[in-house]
What does this fold into?
Amino acid sequence: MPLPTAPAELYRHGLRLLLEKDVPAWVDLWDENGILEFPFAPPGRPQRLEGRAAIADYMRPYSDHIDLHDFPEVTVHQTTVPETIVVEMRGVGRLVKTGGPFDMTYIAVVTVEDGLITSYRDYWNPLAVQESGADFAGADR
It folds into this structure.
């Protein structure tokens, strides 16, 4: 089955892969030179990852820290640039270390070219990493 190439379809496919804990397949949705940015990253956390390899290294331990259960709220907005979407969403699950709840809201600006993600700006809530047990992907970097 071919991968979706429209930005909204590819993005939703990526969310399904994260719920399936298939981080390598999620990383495969990225262009070799893709850029993942975290504009609101607190001190000590990465603000920019350049290239699929850096994104893979960052995401590799994700499911060791967060057990995602659902994305109960996902709204995709098409921009005037066909390759770029803005996504409002909420991810829920549990923190693996403590068993406590994980509930994060995000806004993402995503660009897809030739069926691969080339740019992803992730506006997540930096206050969430202050919670006990929230040492998820990249917290030690």
The radius of gyration is 14 Å. Strands lie at 30-37, 48-50, 66-78, 84-95, 101-113, 116-124.
